[in-house]
Amino acid sequence: MGPEDNMDEQAPSRARPGSTREWADGRTAPRILVAEDQAEMRVLLRRALMRRGYEVVDASDGPRLVQAIVDGLLAPQTQVPDLIVTDVRMPGYSGLEVLARLRREGWTTPVILITAFGDAQLHAEAKELGAACVLNKPFAMEDLVAAVEALVPLPR
């Protein structure tokens, strides 16, 4: 079973958003879905983004990333992420596999990929799939925060 199967099985009748929920009204913060299999790194990412004022949902592997997306679609009030930050190599599905599926489904949600294996081929594939950017580990948390803020600025 791949990310395609799980998303189609559980949310066949819901329209998939081209972008994301409305948050520019200033009442809620943008929702960021962080997927990272290393617990310490996931906690660091979550804390850094929450400190800036973002709402953060996290996932510890590829299947949980897909499940978080499906859960957001099936929620009484759709709660899909405004941005996805995902590790490339994770158990289950890779960040690239999930990105490819989202793009095939017409989602335009920005995706930032993070990786410890960022060779030229991976960067080219990520660009071709429409990733907003790829950050090679180790990276400065300020670089991630700057990329996030550029893609989904907080309401003022």
Explain what you see.
The termini are far apart. The chain has a five-stranded parallel sheet, sandwiched between helices. It is globular. The model is unreliable at 8-27 (pLDDT under 50). It has six helices and five strands; from the N terminus they run αβαβαβαβαβα. By secondary structure, the chain is an alpha/beta fold. The longest helix has 14 residues, at 39-52. The chain has one domain (28-150): Rossmann fold, CATH 3.40.50. The protein has helices spanning 3-10, 39-52, 62-74, 95-104, 120-129, 141-151, and strands at 31-35, 55-59, 83-87, 111-115, 133-136. InterPro entries: Bact_response_regulator, CheY-like_superfamily, Sig_transdc_resp-reg_receiver. This is Response regulator. Residues 1-23 are annotated as: Disordered. The modification 4-aspartylphosphate is found at residue 87.
Short précis:
The chain is α/β, with parallel strands linked by helices and 156 residues long. Helix content is 42%, strand content 15%. β3, α4 and β4 form a beta-alpha-beta unit.
Compile the SSE list and pairings:
Blueprint: H1 3-10, E1 31-35, H2 39-52, E2 55-59, H3 62-74, E3 83-87, H4 95-104, E4 111-115, H5 120-129, E5 133-136, H6 141-151
Parallel strand pairs: 1-2, 1-3, 3-4, 4-5
